[in-house]
Amino acid sequence: MMMVAKEELSELVRRVVSFIITLVILGIINAIVVRLPAMDIEVYDTITVAYIASMVISVIIVAIVVIFGKDIAVRVERIIPEFPELNPIIYNIAILAAIIIAYRAFEGLFIPLLDESNIMWLYPVVFLCAAILPIYRLTAVLFTSSGKIADVIVKEKKTTIGGTVVCPACGTSVVKSKFCGACGQELPQPTAASSCPKCGSALKPGARFCVYCGTEVSEPKAAPQHGDGNHS
């Protein structure tokens, strides 16, 4: 299972690097194309061939961003299956990024045309409407998963409170747990009297309850038996 996660993580890194390289290459191509001879010829009004070429490249970038976002969302969900909410979060962020790129790419084409009809306001409204759904989905997921995220943070904090141990096999200092996260070696476990069985926090000697989660960690001592005072 750990090997599969490492392979997925390596593939994720490769995809991210490929995505960045692709964007850089497209940016270079765009910079070269718009400076080619005859690219400043006007096709319509102030719209030039260079602008059309740049717009086509922007469309390609938008498509790549959407595809990349969907792919990365799926891969992250495989790596962190306990957080399926990351899938829609990443994907909707990619959609919003694509909408912003498209807005910047097409404004030079549509705003002059809409300005002639005195409806230039329609351009941002269209993109705003397009962004409403991913914004709503992103907000809804973040809102519904906020409690889960908080629980993980609190759990991590409680785990850290218990301190760290040194793995006897590889010598790595790790948070107190059952197995070493570096080599998989089973770690020596503290006795029940020294740590809370629920949250793993360190206990003070003689404590009956955990001060971090309130769990009872020891049975109350039986009261000493005294005689009834009658002697035969």
UniProtKB/TrEMBL annotation:
Origin: domain of life: Bacteria
InterPro entries referenced in this protein's UniProt entry, alphabetically: DZR
Domain DZANK-type: 167-214
Pfam families, per the entry: DZR (PF12773)
Keywords recorded for this protein, A-Z: Membrane, Transmembrane, Transmembrane helix
Transmembrane segments: 12-36, 48-68, 89-106, 118-136
Coiled-coil regions, chain positions: none
Protein name, UniProt field: DZANK-type domain-containing protein
Source organism (scientific name): Syntrophaceticus schinkii
